[in-house]
Amino acid sequence: MSKNAKINSLLLLLVAALAVLPLALGLGDDKEEPFAGADAQAEAAITELKPDYEPWFSPLYEPPSGEVESALFALQAAIGAGVLAYYFGLRRGRRQGAAAGAADGSAPDSAKAPAATES
Hints:
This protein has 119 residues and is mainly alpha-helical. The chain has helices spanning 3-24, 38-49, 66-103.
């Protein structure tokens, strides 16, 4: 097994452990919503500290359930990851294309200087 394969296997095992350990250890079993987001936790803390607090803004769209909200959040994350992957792939492709062009001696037409003519 190569060094990279060992590192990748170890990282995959670590990610799996991070996903499974909180569930296996029962972390959050004493809470009503064990894996609530930071927004919900902040709202609960504010309501507890100051019950008469009124928010400055209200949401433009309130999803019908927590599952729909989670799905929309996951979709947003997937679109963002796709945009970043496209950008970095495009940059790498351009860099490899430029390196290949420099290796075989060809250069883009705009980089070539016109031939000098003698009169």
